[in-house]
Write a structure and sequence with these properties.
The chain contains 13 helices and five strands. It is mostly helical. It has one domain: A middle domain of Talin 1 (Up-down Bundle). The strands form two sheets. Strands 2-3-4 form a three-stranded antiparallel beta sheet. Strands 1-5 form a two-stranded antiparallel ribbon. Helix 2 crosses helix 7, helix 3 packs across helix 8 and helix 10 packs antiparallel against helix 11. It is globular, with a radius of gyration of 20 Å. The two termini are 32 Å apart.
Length: 348
């Protein structure tokens, strides 16, 4: 869509990459909100309960930016006869960012209560699917690249369907606490014609935003590697695991921090844990089914970091809350991880 920029002089290309990346992130966040509001309104008109809407549409909505970026890369790579190499790094980076940065910042505002159901159900599920991703990502190759191949992606798709059925059935049979959580979801009421139009606009904006982010991020990584003499794969991984990951995690960051500031601290950690499960099963499942997802061997360390900090979150949550002390620990781990990424890229 934006290939014409590659014919411009190099300084204008770099400026364009930065502008497209910034506008793309804005589009992803803004049109994600539009899509969630309009889709929730349509679901309400169809007499679907607020609890089910919250567990499906709203949960998927916060993962829309990652989905748009990953699927855009898969489709573009398929059209060019190659394999997608952004999706895996984007999801791993986003999950790391969600736990360390999003929950770390949220915990600094106010202590977050961790419900027993999250400790007993959601966190173990997240640990299980994270472990499965590590196994798939580390032990199955496509040529000389580590990969998520189609059969693995299809397993993820089956698992996300099973997970959605599980959470909806559990919610309907749930206790008063879960019902109360569902009632906290505010769904905008709008005419059905307006909801449909805004839903289409939201989807279109998310798709365009995803194209912008992928094009801008890949362009910056390529030109940065050439200009400084760095390894292209490592530079692309650095951009995907940092700039793109933070950009696509903005909905989770905004939602969780606002929830924490309003005192709705139970929603913050539930939002992040649910989003991380969706990122692995839903996004990698869809993107990998479209086109196998490949990446360099350096992803092994990132996958292990993702699994390690997921286990860390589980341990920190066992006392029933995440306070300022836990927030500092999470943010310190994120700073160390960023330092490692920069060092890895520079000295390669």
């Amino acid at each position: 869509m934006f290939d014409f920029i590659l014919n411009w002089p190099l300084p204008f290309q770099i400026i364009s990459f930065v502008v497209l990346l910034g506008i793309g992130v804005f589009f992803l966040v803004k049109f994600c909100d539009i899509f969630v509001d309009s889709a929730s309104s349509i679901a309400k008109k169809l007499k679907i309960s607020p609890l089910v809407i919250g567990l499906t549409i709203v949960a998927m909505g916060t993962s829309c930016p990652e989905l748009a970026v990953s699927v855009s890369d898969s489709v573009a790579s398929l059209a060019n006869g190659g394999n997608a190499n952004v999706a895996l790094g984007n999801v791993v980076g986003s999950n790391i960012c969600n736990i360390l940065l999003v929950l770390g910042l949220s915990a600094l505002f106010t202590p977050m209560i961790v419900r027993k159901s999250i400790i007993k159900k959601e966190l173990p599920i997240l640990l299980a699917v994270s472990s499965l991703l590590v196994i798939f990502g580390c032990f199955f190759n496509l040529g000389d690249k580590l990969a998520i191949v189609r059969w693995e992606a299809i397993i993820f798709v089956v698992l996300i369907i099973a997970y959605l059925v599980y959470v909806v059935l559990s919610a309907k049979k749930g206790n008063d606490e879960e019902q109360a959580q569902g009632e906290e979801i505010v769904i905008k009421d709008m005419p059905i014609w307006k909801s449909i139009i805004l839903c289409i606009v939201g989807i279109a904006g998310i798709i365009i935003g995803g194209e912008m982010v992928v094009f801008g991020a890949k362009g910056l990584a390529t030109e940065g590697a050439l200009a400084i003499g760095l390894d292209k794969d490592l530079t692309e991984a650095l951009v995907g695991l940092t700039i793109v990951a933070v950009g696509t995690s903005l909905p989770e960051l905004v939602t969780s921090v606002i929830a924490a500031k309003k005192g709705e601290n139970e929603l913050a950690i539930g939002n992040v844990v649910g989003s991380n499960i969706f990122n692995i099963l839903f996004i990698l499942g869809i993107a990998g089914t479209v086109n196998p997802l490949t990446t360099g061997n350096q992803i092994v360390v990132d996958l292990l970091v993702m699994l390690g900090i997921t286990l860390l979150l589980f341990v920190l949550s066992l006392n029933g809350k995440l306070g300022k002390k836990q927030g500092v620990i999470l943010l310190s781990c994120y700073a160390l991880y960023l330092a490692y990424l920069i060092t890895r890229t520079v000295i390669a």
